[in-house]
Amino acid sequence: MRTLEAGDPVMEAIAITGDKVSFVGEQDEALAAFPDAEIVDIDGGVVIPGITDSHTHFKRASGVLSLHIDFDAVEPRNIGDVTDAIADRVAIDPPGKWVQGDSLEPTRLAEKRFPTRQELDAVSTANPVVLRSVGRHVVAANSLALEAAGIDAATPDPVGGRIEHDEAGEPTGVLHEEAKLRLDANRADTVVPPDSTKDRFAALSRSVELLNRHGIVAIHEMPRDPDQISDWLLLHEQERPRVRVRFYVRGLAAQTSVYDLLRTGLRSGFGNEFLKLGGVKFSIDGSGTFGNAMVYEPYPGQPDNVGLQRVETDEFIEAVRLSHESGLQIAVHAFGQRAVDMALDAFQAIAVPRSDLAARRHRIEHAYLPPRPGQLERIHDLGLVLSTQPSFIEAVGDAWRRVFADDELNGVMPVATAMELGIPIQFNSDFPCSKLNPFVGIKAAVVRETSTGHVLDQSQAIDVEAALRFMTHAPAHTAFEESWRGHLRPGYAADLVVVDRDPLLTPPDELDQIDVVRTVVGGESVFVA
Ligand SMILES: [Zn+2]
Question: What is the rounded (10 degree) CA torsion for 76, 81, 84, 86?
């Protein structure tokens, strides 16, 4: 058993009484102390603390997994494959029913672009089509969908968004960030019909097993509309809880406004051991993969593009101030260096002592583009948590290499430097933006290989033990739970995973092949292979 505590003690036995760990130590002692216990021999397996995935869009993804076309599963190689998948759906759906697709990644298509309106029209003249990118930063729509949303050649780019046009000045159907307008399913005035409550609930219930199968006992969920919270509440009411969920509710440019949240009086920590309010999340830029992350130097080949700012600076600072003063923990999505600076400037602008900021454990999400000089030092000085995704190296590292020049990627995912500076770090998947399997992320943190085997800045590699702590101990601390969960200690919640081999003795190249054989949440086995 690997508790991952300092000094890396290897233990033989763990005892669980009710929902808590009651003993950790030698086997003889355990047998003497608990003579009547039911004994589970894990037979060559290794126990580690349960995994917390500290940034997911799991509820949203569970809809993707069964209700919409999931391009992550379809794995289209070109635009023809994308339109084939739509044609298949159109063949079974009645006319007028919206066809929705998720996790479309144009850099994985031979054409390296989204399909155009005309290409989508060719397979769907009676069904509006809206296809969303990985992370939902960009949508591609057919003519019916554009018409429904009232987007035409005369529609101007909104602040923080970009409508692509063809040579004739007509929209191509590709809409970036805020330009998704009423095709953004999360907007209150969206024209994209919601999935039925019954369908959504069934999809979520089925997909929770996926979490447990990967050893995940808790998630920090990032909902963007009220349904993404209410469905979890319903699930925990109707079924035995199999995962702990902490909500970081989107506070600006979403249906769940921070001002409404503040008025409710709900604060970080409200809830119970299974469902809890973590805090509020603000997203200030787009994704690097599509050239929408806020950067300082224009993207190579795009002299006018330095990324998209999705919220107004003054409004953002005010939201940070109010949230902090009211006792809400803040998570800020900032991909590009200019977005990271905007986040750091905001925390600085609210002018509270570092100790006050650090006490609240506010988080910067992503921040993996190579930091500008002094940027990591500022993250440290402001007492912020770096919440990032080494698994992106595997998932989109090759796409970054097409967007950025090689020297612009030196120091990408700067985990080793952040550790040296003493910045609190946690790792997560941002699922469905990268794979849920935590061992894919752990391998990426250690070997730093893209999916085609290109190594991105080996000097930022860290060891397996540290990577595991960033997915077990660290997220419990970020969520103010370090006194009762996240560790294998007597008195702590019995959240643990049995894996088929010792991660610390596994060759780095094989880390992603580690299999979970049992997952225990609150003393109950929720998954047994
Ligand atoms: Zn995210």
Answer: 40
The candidate with the shortest Cα–Cα distance to 136, out of 217, 250, 213, 50, is 250
Is-contact 451 394, C-beta < 8 A? yes
Separation of CA 221 and ligand 1 centre (Å): 9
Residue 18 CA to ligand 1 centre (angstroms)? 34
List pLDDT tens digits, range 458-516.
999 999 999 999 999 999 999 999 999 999 999 999 999 999 999 999 999 999 999 99
| Strand pairing category for 216-221 and 171-177 | unpaired
Cα-to-centroid distance, 365 and ligand 1 (Å):
8
Distance (angstroms) between ligand 1 centre and the Cα of 434 equals 10
- Residue (of 217, 239, 201) closest to 525 by Cα position: 217
In the chain, where does the domain assigned CATH 3.10.310.70 lie?
68-183
Domain 51-59+197-521 in CATH 3.20.20.140? The answer is yes
pLDDT in tens, 197-254: 888 888 888 889 999 999 999 999 999 888 889 889 999 998 888 999 999 999 998 8
Q: What confidence tier does 7 reach under pLDDT thresholds 50, 70, 90?
A: confident
Residue 26 Cα to ligand 1 middle (Å): 41
pLDDT confidence bin for 405, thresholds 50/70/90? confident
**Separation of 382 CA from ligand 1 center, angstroms?**
22
Summarize the confidence of residues 433-450 as an average pLDDT. 96
Distance 338 CA to ligand 1 centre (A): 18
Q: In the chain, which segments carry CATH 3.20.20.140?
A: 51-59+197-521
Distance 222 CA to ligand 1 centre (A): 7
Pairing assessment for the beta strands 496-499 and 425-427 based on DSSP bridges:
unpaired
**CATH T-level assignment (fold) for domain 68-183:** Diaminopimelate Epimerase; Chain A, domain 1 (3.10.310)
